[in-house]
Amino acid sequence: MTEERTYKGAILLTVMSIGLYFMPDISPRTFWYSSFIGLFIPAGLVVLVIMLVYWAVKRNRLFILPIVLLLINWKFIQRSVSVSSTSDKPKEFSVLSYNIRLFNVYPQFADKTFSTTRKIIDFVKKSEADVVCLQEFYNDPKDTLFNTLHRIKKKYPYYYFSTTFKNHTGGTFGMVIFSKFPILSKGKVVFHEGSNNQTIYADIDFPAGKARVYNMHLQSMSIDDKEIAESHFDNKSKTKVMQAFLKYKNGTINRSIQVDKLVGHIKESPYKAVVCGDLNDPPYSYTYEKLADVLTNAFERKGNGFGFTFNGKIPFLRIDHQFCDSNLIVTDFETKSSVSFTDHFPIIASYRFK
């Protein structure tokens, strides 16, 4: 590589890194491509590491450049991988968040005996968490198995179930917060009429203090990850990919609107807040950035490894998150990757009041 090409490469590397750094700050409502470009931030970090090693081996003084750029993008490294130990201070309360995919009630997810449904319910009932936030919740009071509200509240006597839809059999869909401790008040953040996506909250009276727990489920993509992962370069696949891009565009714009409203609501909370659930966005997105501006991410503080939470055909996605108020201390965080009953892994975090 000639000296001229080397310096051109250095300039290109700098422009790429700085450009990627600012992508999550740009609202998709202004420039929706920012959300898509932001997906390449992990790849950009890898390129920086490769160039650091390359120039170091070549004993080129330009090896300092990728070090500087990596330091500038340090927040994205923290969001990608975490190495930590459990706090020596005991927890005062813990929160479990889990997208349960309607307990696999639909035939395409269920087996003949609904064994995974039973496993999901058992997992929740056996959880040691003080608060359980479930997205894509389903309850049918007339069904022995899917009378899930009744089955789980035996362990968690306090709950708030917010419904979004009721089917012809009387089954109800929505989101729920279960708690071992009294719920003082509750409510929801409505994004717009007719939306199945919402955020609910419960003000809980823990022995060590009061906190507001938000359970969020922001706009999904409605993209078939299996079709994308298994697509080929034929016309049919190209059409599906283009449709997926359109869904991605609409999804990311809608989530930007939703997260702005959610952040406004969080700022007005009278209590310290924990925000958890299915963000449907990775850590390099506008939605994550907006929440990270006002809250601390539990994985970044006490997680280990990469913490991928999506159990689907598209790998390496961490789209389920827990954030907390700066006046709360994260003492532990875990992604339950062994619990693979749905397309999401549950996440659990423990907290202390400052």
Count of discrete structural domains:
2
Poorly predicted regions are none
Order of helices and strands: HHHHHEHEHEEEEEHHEHEHEEE
Indicate the structural class.
alpha+beta
The CATH architecture of the largest domain is 4-Layer Sandwich
Q: Please tally the β strands and state the result.
A: 12
Average pLDDT metric: 92
Count of separate DSSP helical elements:
11
**Spatial arrangement of strands, main beta sheet:** 3-4-2-1-12-11
What is the CATH topology assignment of the largest domain? Deoxyribonuclease I, Chain A
Write down the Rg.
22 Å
Strand count, sense and closure of the main sheet?
Answer: 6 strands, mixed
Write the layout of secondary structure elements.
Blueprint: H1 3-22, H2 33-38, H3 41-57, H4 64-72, H5 74-80, E1 93-99, H6 115-126, E2 131-139, H7 148-153, E3 158-166, E4 172-179, E5 183-190, E6 198-206, E7 209-217, H8 225-229, H9 235-267, E8 272-278, H10 286-294, E9 296-297, H11 298-302, E10 320-324, E11 328-335, E12 347-353
Parallel strand pairs: 1-2, 7-8
Antiparallel strand pairs: 1-12, 2-4, 3-4, 5-6, 6-7, 8-10, 9-10, 11-12
Helix pairs in contact: 1-3, 1-4, 3-4, 9-10
Task: Describe it.
The protein is an alpha+beta fold and 354 residues long. It has 2 domains: 78 residues; 261 residues, Endonuclease/exonuclease/phosphatase (Deoxyribonuclease I, Chain A, 4-Layer Sandwich). It is built from 11 helices and 12 strands. It has a 6-stranded mixed β-sheet. A 6-stranded mixed β-sheet has the order 5-6-7-8-10-9. Strand 1, helix 6 and strand 2 form a beta-alpha-beta unit. Helix 1 runs parallel beside helix 4, helix 3 packs antiparallel against helix 4 and helix 9 runs parallel beside helix 10. The longest helix is centred in the last third of the chain and has 33 residues.
